[in-house]
Fold:
Amino acid sequence: MEVRVAVDAMGGDRAPGEVIAGAREARSEDVVPVLFGPRDVIAPLAPDLEIVDAPQVVGMHEKPADAAREKRDSSLFASCRAVADGNAHVVVSAGNTGAMLAAGLVEIGRLPDVSRPAIAAPIPAMRGPSILIDAGANADARPEHLMQFAHMGTIFAEEIIGLERPNVGLLSIGEEPEKGNLLTLEAHALLEGADLRFVGNTEGRTLLEGETDVVVCDGFTGNVALKTIEGTIRSVLGALRGEIASSTRGKLGGFLIRPAARGLRARLDPETTGGGYLLGLRGLVVIAHGSSSRVAIANATRMAARGVEHGLVEHLAARLPTSRAETRAGVGSGAVGP
Amino acid sequence: MEVRVAVDAMGGDRAPGEVIAGAREARSEDVVPVLFGPRDVIAPLAPDLEIVDAPQVVGMHEKPADAAREKRDSSLFASCRAVADGNAHVVVSAGNTGAMLAAGLVEIGRLPDVSRPAIAAPIPAMRGPSILIDAGANADARPEHLMQFAHMGTIFAEEIIGLERPNVGLLSIGEEPEKGNLLTLEAHALLEGADLRFVGNTEGRTLLEGETDVVVCDGFTGNVALKTIEGTIRSVLGALRGEIASSTRGKLGGFLIRPAARGLRARLDPETTGGGYLLGLRGLVVIAHGSSSRVAIANATRMAARGVEHGLVEHLAARLPTSRAETRAGVGSGAVGP
Structure:
């Protein structure tokens, strides 16, 4: 199957150069990147790739509501629209996450019964990948949203990662059910009653071990946790390099462990994952790091194609419980998080 | 000065054996540990240390409110009472954090104008120690609480760490002021108007770098972030060990870098820090990890003595802005967090 991936060529700190290079790197028999952006800017850089002209650009710090009102002809909105119109199977952007969420809602729309789309981010855990959901789409969430994230994460883990009956943990501050904040205490009660393999609270200290297949939390907590993992990995490996370089003995040792360290670093590098899926829409969206290099964009593009090949959106549409069955009154306002 | 440190001998997963051993290890000319617990249990293990009989024991998962009602004769409550009564200068416990907070409030009481005591935890950041506050006392907090945490953290960083005019960051999900959840958006506005060196939002990815001297957040977010740092450090160093051990070349390299790696591991080990200070009470409380070994207890005991020597409580009492001056109506209800 040939997957057409709409790539927001103007999204991210290193756009358009690195984004275009990454899209080119991901191109294969099965993956066809289509670049969205101002043709006069992009065409000279990508004479070999398909381009759709989208003259406007959404800034990294522009307000999502402003962008939705004034920038419908931007690369970010136009690439989402291409998915809605059937001109592409999936979209990849390293641009403004809030604007991307708004574009997804406005151009693609939510699946029936989904109240809040959420970002499912793979964590490079030691025992194999875990899923953290929500990794940043909803800075404020209600308990029933967390339950829906749990369902979406479970379907994701089964269909994309291939786990059988993945377990679900609620990210909190103690393993006992009575530990947590108001949000997690209420979500814990809901999750216990849901048709999920819920194993209770899980803690930050085991996130990178991968004890839990699907880790559920609000987007604020998830984003803090994910960035803390990334920053800590970088700081620890950097500090180790520094310590090693401070003695001759260490330098020789460092030379000898280089292959081993390189393998680990590559596995833990956020660029290797490439990004997270925005789940809950009628089409598929992959959100890459704002700082993405060509390597990250290439991996995010491949990840996007994989999601299409596995029919991720179709599985979510078919398998998500309806709001009537599981969630409570008051769900479905569909307000966009910041 | 001789500092009398009340040690809750029954607090923590490895009590009383490791706790007593740690207290003994910390004993010096200036540090006098006083053990609290059932005399018949403790005396055989500590014939060489001062003991105050406290027959009850608070379980690690006991509800704080229940403990406050029924366990006033526990090691946990009695050791706090000793501080209030002047029989000890400071208390150390690796026990139930919620019960410890309750005991602090009930037995020692809050400083005037403090609405919520908070845990200030040192982070072993690369550029020298940072302070994370609140690391877990208040799972739910209001914006004005975060501002008070910022003041307490600043005074801590100046008086204990010796930083001059430390900078304060708000832990959030993007550096721009408009990124965050409802709590941080409102807290950001308050912090901007406060007499603090507020540098705006800070992110999880730089926590271990130490760009920010005082990192402010609610206790849920702080606890998740702190445990995520600890778990990630352990996972990364463990994975590196595994990679190195998988080849002969790696094993030789691993042998050569051992001294360098050992230094780094010791610096990053939570046991080296020992614990966090519970700030905002009329007396000083140090809360150690539940899993503390004798090394951690010894370090927490020394940390407790250091806080007394530096007059931490006196500095907080003298320097914290009054609620009238800086906080808004509605503060001061003093409800205990979960």
Summary: Chain B touches chain A through 66 residues (CB under 8 Å). The mean pLDDT of chain B is 92.
